Records
---
Amino acid sequence: MEIRQSERKKVKIKLALQGSAGSGRTYLSLLLAKGLTGGDFTKIAIIDTIHFANTGKKIKNWCTGDCLWGRMGRIKKEIENCENIEALRYVYSKYPDLQNEIKPLILEKKQKLEDIYSNIMTPKEINNQNKHHQNGINTNK
């Protein structure tokens, strides 16, 4: 047997879950998928092989609906799509019951927006800069 350093590769997971009817295989599968996708249920597909049960579809609809996981996924996307501080304030006030959970995400996005805004020059700043430069040469010296 040869011992060597392990390597990370893009290998798909092969997993089998066994249990009797009603033991929670589908629910456990979704919990595993939640952990593997960081809670983003939009990255999960369910193939329910029991034709009459439709359990997987019901649970996935519940998780992408009003359960906390699906709700947090939607809120994260809403925060990511905010283009200004006012939009972040709106999202924060929209979910008073989850403010403790979303506050770190809001603050992180706020910092990103402030970093972007700090690099933007106003038209007045551009005009003032042009007054001191002629053909790319600083004439203010």
---
Amino acid sequence: MELLKEYTILVDSREQHPLQFPEWLSVAHTHQKKSVSVHLAVQRHRLDTGDYLLKEAPLIGVVERKCGLPELHNNLITGDRPRFEACLRRLAEFPRPVLVLEGAMSLYGVKNANNLCPDPPLVLSTLNRVCSLYGIPVLFASDNRRMVGEWVARYLIDMAVAYNYPDPSENPCQDSSAPPQ
């Protein structure tokens, strides 16, 4: 896929504090060794899977975002795990899913997190094990919401370009099975 001049980031309407996205984003040009600017629009939309999708390539990349140890503790340890695993199963249907953990890495350390979460090592080990079962990579991101927003937008656009979306038949690595619902 050639780069478009404008992309729209779909943000799940249930996101209470969505990431911040710049109006313009520099991304790598498809065929030249330089970056170019693309315009970003943002639309709130109820998404079946994930928190962020690219409107122009909704079946390629998907981003699920978690805001830290307390949310992960709730998702993995205190009874919300079946729903979280159902989310991971849906994410795994996409060719390029990613789980983004927002917040400075130091917040996830055992010493600094005890006041936020009763057992940080339990949460992080459980997260690693559950995500590995579904093949979902985990990215520890900054606590700067704009920087995370830029990374998410760039990731979704780059995955669309890498997969030649909307014509994935041009990509020999693309699975020929039916797209995710």
---
Amino acid sequence: MTPSPLVYPMLAMALLIFAIMVGTLVTRIYHLRLGLVRLSYFRLMKSGAEEVPDVLSRTARNIANQFEVPMLFFSVSLLSIQLGLADENTVRLAWTFVFFRALHAMVHLTYNKVPHRLAMFLVAQVSVMAMWVKVALAVL
């Protein structure tokens, strides 16, 4: 059985999430080993009086972001496959979403300029919203 072409952007998005998870773990271990943060910080992600490196907050927030809108992407992708809506346009929208989510994560985890991040976020949002509109129009 040949998989739907929509499976490939879904796999790419999962790979991106796993890569960010590994990067987050490496960043945390690195900062622990250098003594820049205490292990107790990770209990509730609160530092008390000590200053926590910005990169730890950004990586924590970024990994949390991967379990917000991307879940809408995965669910609409599965619905599109199930409903037979995984045509060329839907696949393009899916790849657009994944590409701009990857750019968003790179900006967030590196130089973190909010206007740049916002632009990436908006393009990804519009892509996944268009996928949902397509599903809604097909079933209503």
